[in-house]
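Q: Please design a sequence for this.
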C-alpha cells in the first residue's frame, strides 16, 4: 500500500498525525451538522474552521470536508 509521510500504512490512516486543535475539529465534525455550528461552539470564524479542515484533509490524504467526514465515521464504526 502507498505510504505518504507515515500517514497511510497498510490502508490505515492514523489520527495521531493531527494536532490537538485539529482533533477537536474532528470531534466537532462528528457532533455538529455544519461548519457554522462548529465555529460558534469553538468561538472561531467559519473560515478558520474550513482552513483547519483543509489541513486535516491534506494530512489524511483526503480531498475535502465530505471525505474527512466519511473517513471519521468509518473509523468510529470500525
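A: Design:
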Amino acid at each position: 500500500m502507498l505510504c505518504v509521510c507515515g500517514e497511510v500504512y497498510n490502508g490505515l490512516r492514523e489520527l495521531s498525525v493531527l494536532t490537538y486543535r485539529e482533533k477537536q475539529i474532528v470531534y466537532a465534525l462528528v457532533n455538529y451538522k455544519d461548519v457554522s455550528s462548529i465555529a460558534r461552539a469553538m468561538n472561531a470564524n467559519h473560515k478558520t474552521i474550513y482552513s483547519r479542515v483543509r489541513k486535516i484533509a491534506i494530512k489524511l490524504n483526503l480531498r475535502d470536508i465530505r471525505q474527512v467526514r466519511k473517513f471519521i465515521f468509518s473509523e468510529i464504526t470500525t
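Q: Thanks. Anything notable?
A: The chain has one domain: 8-77. The chain has four helices and two strands.
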